[in-house]
Amino acid sequence: MNKQEHPIIQAENVTVRFPVGRRKTLTAVDNVSISVRRGETFGLIGESGSGKSTLGRAIVCLERPTKGTVLHSGQDLHTLPRAAMRRHRQQYQIIFQDPAAALDPRMTILRSVREPLDVEGKSSLAERNARALEMMGKVGLGPAFAGLYPHQLSGGQKQRACIARVLTLQPSLIVCDEAVAALDVSIQAEILNLLADLQQEFGLTYLFITHNIGVVEHISDTVAVMYLGQIIEIAPADRLAEHYLHPYTEALLSAEPVALPTAMRPDRRILLKGELPSPMDPPSGCRFRTRCRHATELCAAQAPGLRELAPGHLTACHHAETFREKTAAYEGVS
Amino acid sequence: MDTTTKAIATPGRFISFLNWLRSDLRAALSLGYLLLLVIVSVAAPLIATHSPIAQTPDYLAPADATYLLGTDDLGRDVFSRVIYGTPMSLIASFTAVGVGLAIGLPFGMMAGYMGGWVDIVISRVIDTLLSFPGIVLAVAVTGALGIGLTNAMIAVGIVFAPNIARLIRIQTIVVKNQLYVDAARSFGMPVHRIILRHVVPNAIQPVIVQVTVMLAGALLAEASLSFLGLGVQPPWPSWGQMLARGYTYMEIAPEQMYVPGIAILLTALAYNGLGESLRARLDPTRRAGR
To answer: pLDDT digits over B220-262, tens only?
Structure first.
């Protein structure tokens, strides 16, 4: 099999369930299929509890799908022998939301950054140290940081150390699980620029998980929107802002803060009613219907599947073609 | 505990070890006192003025130039008995805790890391052992193994093991769910290396403290078992046994209890002090930033 023929990640009907108490399960990810092409940045948005992090963890084999498969360049790592799987998974790395928790508090930064190379065990200690220091340099951490412990670093510096750590393996894909959410806004931009530079330099593929639709629009090639464990819309990033085809995406986009005085803001903010329903007991039919102002009886009766309405643009809404006219009508009335 | 002291004292870190002792008076005193006990243990025949088991007619004699600390109820020199009792007490406490660690650590870690039915089985066994009163369990185990100091201390170790296992189990569960363990897994690190590199160093802290408390507890347990005749066999002395024997004459010669009692107390304090200092020393977040 030629590696290039396959998407770098192909998740097929992935379902991840967690046991919660006796005989109850929580379906964090429900029958999700995505495909990430080599070299692209794939954005995954959704609110807290939508299952986006679980999907990210399943993609780097930290969670095992209850159903479905995750193919890495056409191969299901869970079917490999353990040693082979450990070797292969080094190509698929993850950067976590909380850099403080992702570094062992008892290890110096150098030792943490070197860790993947220690696992690999291919080179001498001096070579590994040199390589770790080189990667620290790439992310803007000088040799002075080598002997420090995580608690002596700021959040941004810790996240840089985490990035340097995954880079030592020269992975082909990095899952950024809310990688900038825990940082100050100014640092966020710095880290995002760093990630973009590194993508150019190393030819990385990113799966960018975030709840910040503004971040995703700017850096992604493709965007998928998740709601309650399901993907409800996938579109090329440049199409999504204007040509969205799902009421939930509409609500997300309208909730994005606009840097304008109140009087000048377009008055189209849509407030979602109620809370995210419990993933232990999701609503029938369309999962979004309990909070959707366009919901009809059809939505309660039948779950909408993903339909491709434009090239590369899929949505799971019965009223995808018509709801935007109704939105306009609502706004006319109010 | 001695392995961690060694780790700090390896060449290259020797200077920082000295600096640590200089900056931490409690650690220096505790370590100094324990070192003194080791020297006394090794050099007991040179230090002791009398045979520890030779009986004389001068029973319950007060302290004087011949009998530095007086004599006991069989006319044996208390000073010499305390000196000869030192190695017994040290060996007793380390054997007990060593056995406790050797059993408790692997099982506790296994239960915590593997979870599932392994955890259920090990936890039930721990609960069962904990439901026995310690001394009864120790007596039963000593009875089964045969009488003698080593067996008595193995018994105490078996009593300690479930406490250690329970402690390390919880710590292991906490650590194994940390993100840095997930990160290590995603680098393809095999489970045994994850345990050695991340779980042990991060989970062991409370165990170090617990070990120092247990070392002190083992000294006292040795006293109890010797009191019941299950520990050091007469005529050879141990501190616990001397304390137990002195207790019989508490009303006519209370000073019989002072020396072994104070020796036990100081040793227990030294263990605790060293443990507390070690824990602070091994935690990088509590060290002064540079």
So the answer is: 788 778 777 788 887 888 888 888 888 888 888 887 888 888 9
- CB-CB neighbors (< 8 A) of B194 in chain A: none
State pLDDT tens for residues A9-64: 999 999 999 988 778 888 899 999 999 999 899 999 988 888 899 999 999 999 99
User: Where do the DSSP E strands lie in chain A?
Assistant: 9-19, 25-36, 41-45, 67-72, 75-76, 92-95, 173-177, 205-210, 222-227, 230-236, 307-310, 313-315
In a domain, B99, yes or no: yes
User: CB pairs below 8 Å between A and B: how many?
Assistant: 69
Buried/exposed A99-136: b ≥16 CB within 10 Å, e otherwise = bbbbbbbbbbbbbbbbbbbbbbeeeeeeebbebbbebb
- Mutation target to probe the A interface, by most A beta carbons within 10 A, among B4, B171, B180, B199 is B180
Tokens for B134, please give them: 């310690």
Q: Does B215 touch chain A (CB under 8 A)?
A: no
CB contact under 8 A, A119 and B183: no
Task: Give dist(CA A129, CA A206) in Å, integer.
Answer: 26
> What residues contact residue A10 under an 8 Å CB cut-off, 6+ apart?
A34, A35, A36, A70, A71, A74
CB contact under 8 A, B183 and A94: yes
A18, A60, A106, A175, best to mutate vs chain B, most B CBs in 10 Å: A106
Query: Which residues make Cβ contacts (< 8 Å) with residue A230, sequence separation at least 6?
Result: A30, A31, A32, A51, A287, A316
Decide if A105 and B202 are in contact by the 8 Å CB cutoff: yes
Residue among A174, A223, A237, A272 nearest A45 (CA): A223
Does the domain spanning A3-105+171-238 belong to CATH 3.40.50.970? no
Encoded tokens for B290: 């540079």
Domain-embedded: residue B27 = no
β-bridge partners, A36 = A9
Q: What is the pLDDT of residues A284-304, one digit of tens each?
A: 889 898 888 888 888 888 889
Check: CB of residue B276 under 8 Å from CB of residue B26.
Answer: yes
- Is residue B93 domain-resident? yes
Q: Do B189 and A119 touch (CB under 8 A)?
A: yes
From CA B114, how far away is CA B107, in angstroms rounded? 10
CA distances from B279 to A77, B209, B268 (A): 41, 7, 17
Q: Which amino acid is it at B227? A: F
In a domain, B33, yes or no: no
**Cα distance from A278 to chain B (closest Cα, Å)?**
24
Write the CATH number for B168: 1.10.3720.10
